[in-house]
Amino acid sequence: MVPEVKKCTVKQCFYNRGEECHAHAITVGSDQPICETFANGSSNTDRQGAGEVGACHVTKCTFNNNMYCHACDDIQVDMTSGKAMCTTYRPR
Q1: Distance spanning both ends of the chain, measured CA to CA
Q2: What pLDDT digit, counting tens, does each position of 20-75 carry?
């Protein structure tokens, strides 16, 4: 089961509409839990459906198993230090 992004507060992202991610699937970065799918934009996608975590390359995260996210139902992305970050990240 691929986990959904339950909340995204990065309002300046093209895929964000109403604090919901509507990207088909996001990729979370390598050394840091950065949302690599972030796309700066003032207009928003018209895609329906919740975004999911397609791949997570942050192998030092508790929820990462074989580069797949297993955080189940609490994926959240927020703007942190000027970057769209997966704030569900927990170090091993």
Answers
A1: 22
A2: 999 999 999 988 999 999 999 878 888 888 899 999 999 999 999 999 999 977 79
Measure CA 80 to chain center: 13
Other Cβ atoms less than 10 A from the Cβ of 16: the count is 25
Pairing outcome for strands 52-56 and 25-28: parallel
The tokens for 20 are 């919901």
What is each CA distance from 84 to 1, 6, 24, 66, 90, in whole angstroms?
A: 24, 15, 17, 23, 16
Distance CA 89, CA 79 (A): 14
Residue carrying the six token digits 């000027």: 82
Q: What is the pTM of this model?
A: 0.90
